[in-house]
Structure formats: C-alpha cells, structure tokens
Amino acid sequence: MLSLVSGVRRLELTQSQVDARRFIPASVILQELHDEAPADHVTLDWLMGSLHRGSFGLITLMLALGSAAPGIGFVAGPLLLIPALQMIAARPTPTFPHWIATRALPTRHLGAVVQRAIPVLKYLERAVHPRWPTPPEATKRVVGIAIMMLTVRLILSMIPLSNVIPALVIALIALAYLEEDGLVLSIGLMVGLVILAVDLGVLWNTVFGTKRIGRF
User: Fold this and answer.
1) Contacts of 64 by beta carbon, 8 Å cutoff, 6+ apart
2) Residue ranges per domain, the chain?
3) Which residues lie closer than 8 Å to 51 by C-beta, 6 or more apart?
4) Contact between 184 and 172 (Cβ < 8 Å)
C-alpha cells in the first residue's frame, strides 16, 4: 500500500515537473530573447527560431510591442496583418514570406521596447492565467479578426503616437490568447471594439460635418 501511495506521489510530481517545463511565462521568453539578440539587427527568422514555443500569441505580442516603438513601428505594424490573416484561416503556426522573414530590424529599438515591457508583463502575469476556456479554433479566428481590424486602424493612423494605444491593445489580446485567459481576452476584445467604434464615430461625424459645411 505504501509503495502504491509513493508511486502515485512520484507520478504526480513527475507530471507537475512536465507541466512546469511546458509553461514558460511570456516575460521570461522575452527576457531570454533580449539577452540572446544579435547586437545590430534581428530578423523574423531569428525570432521564430528562438522562440521556446512557436505560436501566434508570441509572434503577435512581439510585433505589437514593436509597433509601439519609434523607428520600427512602420515595419512591425503592417507585419501584424500576416499572422492575423493566418489565424482567420486557422493555420497551425505563423509563417512569413522569405523576403519578409529575413528583413533586418534594429535591435536597439526592439530591445528598448522589450525592456520596458518585461516589468509590465511580470506584473500582468500575476493576474493573467488560464481560465474561462474558449473553443480553440473559434477563438483563434475571432482574435485574428480583432487583430486585423486594429492593425488596419494602427496603419491608417496619421496622428503622431496614435498608433500606441491600438498596439498595446493588440499586445494585451495576444498575451491573453497566449495564456489562454478567456476573461482578459474578453476584456481586450471589448476595449478593441470600443476603440474601433470611437474611430468610426469620429469618421462618421467628419464626413457628415463636411457635407453640411458644403451645403452652406
């Protein structure tokens, strides 16, 4: 009987160790990427090859953080459309064309953003954890649609620094999707919907305001 109990305990311990090895917080992964990054430039090929677990969540999180950074935002922002469209199409992993995957991005700009993001992620990870399970495929498509719409908003924005808020919302959605946190994911999607609704309202008022002025 004692041997059976000890065997069960060893099995439980082994399973917990396996689970611990499987789960690596996003902040830890980003810190390792920062520490291992080449001195001058990084590429998407290097980034995807360095990830502990290649996923849409991680690559979208990295690109979203890059989209908020001066100097590389104009490159990282449009790249968000690629994983977004692939999520809508239910692709298993993100892939990029060779000419995009090998394009160099300045390490110093990305590194500065990552270093600022890591303490925030560590704080958020206290609250972001698996809960409110959602259907995987349906969730992937919904997240892809939300990221696509927010990315279009980010790209078309002409006001300086107006890309920061949608980029951070995309990062929040990506983090919640990565950590399988249905609650935070729902909050992130709602915030994104509010941003899009406000922008649509402003555009509507601008168009109709211009028409009214034209009548006079």
Assistant:
1) 76, 80, 167, 168, 170, 171, 174
2) 25-215
3) 29, 33, 58, 59
4) yes
Place of tokens 């992130």: 188
Task: Decide if 59 contacts 48 (C-beta within 8 A).
Answer: yes
Instruction: Pull the structure tokens for residue 31.
Output: 């810190």
Helices (H) and strands (E) in the chain, counts: 11, 2
> For residue range 131-168, what is the model confidence (pLDDT) as tens digits?
888 888 899 999 999 999 999 988 887 676 778 888 89
If you count them, how many residues does the chain have?
216
Q: Is the pTM of this model over 0.70?
A: yes
Query: How far is it, in rounded angstroms, from Cα 6 to Cα 103?
Result: 54
Q: Would you say residue 12 has pLDDT above 50?
A: no
Q: What is the pLDDT of residue 54?
A: 53
The string over 147-156, giving b where at least 16 C-beta atoms fall within 10 Å of a residue's C-beta and e elsewhere, is: bbbbbbbbbe
d(CA 192, CA 161): 17
Q: Give per-residue pLDDT as tens, 64-107.
A: 888 877 666 777 788 899 999 999 998 887 888 888 888 887 77
One-letter amino acid at 158 equals: M
Q: Which of 106, 204, 119, 128 has the alpha carbon at shortest distance from 172?
A: 128
